[in-house]
Amino acid sequence: MQDTDDIGSNPTDNPALAAMIDARVSRRSLLRGSMAAAAVGFFSGGALGARPAAAAVGQRPGAPRQLLGFSEVPTSAADTFVVPPGYEYEVLIPWGTPLSPTGPAWRKDGSNTAAEQERQVGMHHDGLHFFPLGDGPERNRRGLLVVNHEYVDQVLLNPDGAATMTPDKVAKALAAHGVTVVEVRLAGGRWRHVESRYNRRITGTTPVAFSGPVTADHPMLRSNNAPMGTLNNCGHGVTPWGTYLAAEENWNGYFGTDSAWTPTPHEARYGVTRGGFGYNWHKAAPRFDLAANRNELNRFGWVVEIDPFDPTATPVKRTALGRFKHEGATVTEERGRAVVYGGDDENGEYLYKFVSAKPWRQMRARGRSPLDEGTLYVARFDASGSGTWLPLEWGTGPLTPAGGWADQADVMIRTRQAADALGATKLDRPEWVAVHPHTGHLFVTLTNGSNGPDPANPRGNNVYGHIVRIAEARDGNTWTEFGWDVFAFAGDPGYQPEGRLVPAGQPLFGSPDGIWADPDGRLWIQTDISNSAQNLASRKYDRIGNNMMLAADPATGEIRRFLTGPRGAEITGVVTTPDQETMFVNVQHPGEATTAWGTPTVSNPRAVSNWPDYDPAGRPRAATVVIRKTGGGKVGT
Ligand code: FEO
Ligand code: CA
Ligand code: CA
Ligand code: CA
Predict the structure, then answer these.
(1) Of all atoms in ligand 1, which is nearest to the CA of residue 5?
(2) Tell me: the pLDDT tens digits for 575-596?
(3) Which residues, including other chains, have CB under 8 Å from residue 16's CB and lie 6 or more apart?
(4) Which candidate, 365, 382, 491, 293, places its Cα nearest to that of 46?
(5) How many angstroms is it from 233 CA to the middle of ligand 2?
(6) What are the tens digits of pLDDT across the range 50-68?
(7) Does the Cβ of 346 fall within 6 Å of ligand 1?
C-alpha cells in the first residue's frame, strides 16, 4: 500500500505542529552552535533539538553506562536482512506457517484456501509482543508470541493475484488479517513455534464484543451481520494485567461501493470513499458494501483487547479509547492508573491518551475493565514548548447537546470531530509512542507529512519525519500539562532544505514509525519509507536505502543503525525476552510493489524481493525475525 495515509481527511483550521517547529527552529537558529542546554524534565521553552545530559535523564542504576555497544551496519539496497557483526538471526513464523505441525502446510503458489489460511500465520506482520511462560530462567526460553497482521497484498495472497474479487478471495483475505498467538520455545540454540493449547488465530471474521460507552447495539453500529472481526491491526499495546491490545488503523480502505452513495460528513472525516484502497471486497462481499451495509464501518477504528492466555476469550473492542486510525496503544501506569497513548496515523491528525478512572487493580478487583471507564484526552501543542491534554468528555467545553453531541458514545464514535472542536494540534502522521521506563518521557514518531503552512519553511514539506519528545508535568503520565521538544530530525543532510536540520554524523534514516524503549531505556527506532519513495533520488531517499531499525540513547542523543531489511519491506514491531538476550522484530510486506524495483505479478511474484525463502518458485513473505548476540548477551550492547 503506497502513501494512503498521506492523504488527509482533516478539513479544520486547527494549528499544526509543523508550523510551531518551523517557528521555534528559526528562533533557535540564532543560538545555533552554542549547544544551549535543554530544560530537562519539563521542557518549557526548552532548547529545541538540544540533547539533555545523561545525569539529568536519570539512568537506572545497574543499566550499562554505554547503552549502544554494537558496530553500525551500513545502509543497504540489497534483498537481504543484515545485522551487526557478532549478531545472528533466524526467520520465525513467516506468513502461511501452519499453527500446528500437522498442517495445513503452506503452498508457495498461493493456493491455500481460506479455511487453511485460518489455521496458518497471517500476512504482513506488524506490532508484536512476547508474553513469557513458566518460571525463572524458563521465561527467557518459552513464551507466547502475539503478532498483528496489518493488511494483505492481494497479488501475493492468491494464485491469480488481485484479479476478479470472489467471495472465496475475500474470505482468504479476512483469514490472513487479524492476530496470531503461538507458543515459541528456545531449544538447541534455535527458536521454534510449538504445538500448544494457546495457539490461535483471530481474523476478520472472529466474533467480537464491544465494551465501554459504545455498545454493540448502538444505532450507529447496527449492521446486517453479527459483530465480527478486527482489521488493519497495526501497532499494539500490553496491559499491566497481561492482555494484548491490537490497534485498528486503516480500516476505511476495506469499504467501497458501486451503488449510489455519498459520504456523510462523519464518513468523510474518516476518509471513507467509494473506492476505498482498491481492494474491491465490496464487489464480492455485501458486508463491505457502503451502500448495502452502511454501519459496518463504525465497528472498526477501535482498540481491541485480547487475552492470549485464554484461547476461548472473545476479543473486546474497548470503545472508551476512542475511534480513529489507531496506530498503536502504548500502555504505562502512574499512581496505579492505566494510561494508554496512541496516534491517529493520517496526515494532519492528532495524538491521544486515555487515563483509567481509578487504579487498575481496584477496578479489576471489582470486575470492571480499567479500559472501559476513564478519560480520553487529545494533545494541544503550544509554540512555547508546553502543551495540554484536552479531555474528550461529553457535557464539557463544546461537547454538549447544544454543540450537537448526544452523549459520550457519540463523542467516542466521532472522536476526530470531537478533537477538532477542542482545538487539537495537527501532526505529521503520528505513528508509535514509546514510554521511557525510567523517566516516563514519551517518544512519538511523526513519520512524514505536509502540515507546515508555508512552503518556504524548511520542514513545511516533511519528507523525512522526526521524533517528538514529551515530558508530562511532574513526570506523571496522568497529568494534563506537558512540555515537548524534538528528539531527532530524520533525514539526509545532503538534500536541502529538508535535510538541513539533521546533525552531521547522524546515521541516514527517514520515515520513523515503530519505536520502543527496552528495559534499559534504549530506544529502538524502525522505519517505514513508502515504496513510492524507497531508494529514489527523486524523493530524496536514494542514499537512505531499504527500511531499517536503529537504536538510540535518549541520554546522549546518539543514534546507530542496527539492521537493514530486504527490498520493499518495512521493519515494524520489536520486543525482547525479559533477559533482553533474544529480540523479535517483524519484516512486513517484503516484495511489495515499489517504484524503484517494479511490481510483483502473478507470473513473477518475486519481481521486487524473494525474502526470506529465496525459492526460485516461491514468493516473498512477511515474517518475524529472531536476533541474538553470538555467544549470548543483551541485544544492543
Ligand atoms: Fe500501520 Fe501507520 O502504520
Ligand atoms: Ca506503522
Ligand atoms: Ca506501512
Ligand atoms: Ca508507517
Answers:
(1) 2
(2) 999 999 999 999 999 999 999 9
(3) 348, 425, 426, 427, 451, 452, 453
(4) 382
(5) 10
(6) 333 333 444 455 556 789 9
(7) no
Nearest alpha carbon to residue 278 among 288, 266, 270: 288
What is the chain's length? 637
Q: Is 75 helix (H, G, I), strand (E, B) or coil?
A: coil
Per-residue pLDDT, 450? 82
Distance separating alpha carbons of residues 477 and 472, to the nearest angstrom: 6
- Nearest CA-CA partner of 444 in 519, 347, 517: 517
Residue 513: CA count within 13 A, CB half-sphere: 27
Q: Cell 495515509 maps to which residue? A: 5
Residues paired with 89 in a beta bridge = 627
SS3 call for 537:
helix
3-state SS class at 77: coil
Atom of ligand 1 nearest to the CA of 232: 1
Ligand 1 atom nearest to 447, measured from its CA: 2
Distance CA 409, CA 82 (A): 48
SS (H, E, C) 106-164: CCCCCCCCHHHHCCECCCCEEEEEEEECCCHHHHHCEEEEEEEECCCCHHHHCCCCCCC
Residue 234 CB less than 6 A away from ligand 1 = yes
Q: From ligand 3's centre to the CA of 193, what distance in Å?
A: 26
Burial 290-327 (b: 16+ CB within 10 A, else e): beebbebbbbbbbbbbbbbeeeeeebbbbbbbbbbbbb
| C-alpha cell belonging to residue 555 | 541520554
Q: Are 495 and 488 in contact (CB under 8 A)?
A: no
Question: Which ligand lies nearest the alpha carbon of 233?
Answer: 1
Between CA 465 and CA 613 the distance in angstroms is: 32
d(CA 489, CA 492): 10
Q: Closest ligand to 150 CA?
A: 1
Burial of residue 488 (CB within 10 Å: 0-12, 13-18, 19+) is buried
Q: Flag the least confident range among 23-32, 232-241, 391-400, 499-508.
A: 23-32
- 479: helix, strand or coil: coil
The alpha carbon of 530 is separated from its chain's Cα centroid by a whole number of angstroms, namely: 15
Whole-number pLDDT of residue 548: 99
| Helices and strands in the chain, H and E counts | 9, 29
Cell numbers given for 153: 497484498
Q: Are 415 and 421 in contact (CB under 8 A)?
A: no
Contact 204/287 with Cβ under 8 angstroms? no
